[in-house]
UniProtKB/TrEMBL annotation:
Gene Ontology molecular function: any one: 6-carboxytetrahydropterin synthase activity
Keywords, alphabetical: Lyase, Metal-binding, Queuosine biosynthesis, Zinc
Entry protein name: 6-carboxy-5,6,7,8-tetrahydropterin synthase
EC nos: 4.-.-.-
Pathway the protein takes part in: Purine metabolism; 7-cyano-7-deazaguanine biosynthesis
Organism in which the protein naturally occurs: Thermosipho melanesiensis (strain DSM 12029 / CIP 104789 / BI429)
Family indicated by similarity: Belongs to the PTPS family. QueD subfamily.
Highest taxon above the source species: Bacteria
A single BP term in Gene Ontology: tRNA queuosine(34) biosynthetic process
Keyword set includes Ribonucleoprotein: no
Length: 120
């Protein structure tokens, strides 16, 4: 099994409506997203072309979340809920006979992140 990871960033604002503390107020982050696909190499020696991975993530996640107010997309946009939303948007698009979505990491700050792995 080979693991292929691509890193992305996007900027977005949110507030946590079910949280009591400074994060309940409107604020923004530069999120870092790492998307990992696991699988076997094809005849070209690749699990997935980085360009194809970039296209799928851009079309299904970044074009929606970048420079958005995430509360308009996800009711309680905690890092955990955003990660689950991203997973749901990508899991079928990154699932073939040769590879599958293995893991996403979503950094809300440089030192705080959520890791999500599916079960297959």
């Amino acid at each position: 099994m080979i693991f292929v990871t691509k890193e992305f960033t996007f900027d977005a604002a949110h507030n946590l409506i079910k949280y009591h503390g400074k994060c309940e107020k409107l604020h923004g982050h530069t999120y870092k997203l790492l998307v990992t696909v696991a699988g076997k190499k094809d005849e070209e020696g690749m699990v997935i072309d980085f360009l194809e991975l970039k296209k799928i993530v851009k079309e299904n996640v970044l074009n929606i979340l970048d420079h958005s107010y995430i509360n308009e997309i996800i009711e309680q946009p905690s890092a955990e809920n955003i990660a689950e939303w991203i997973w749901e948007r990508l899991k079928e698009k990154l699932n073939t006979e040769r590879y599958f979505l293995y893991e996403i990491k979503l950094y809300e700050t440089p030192t705080s992140y959520v890791t999500l792995r599916g079960s297959y």
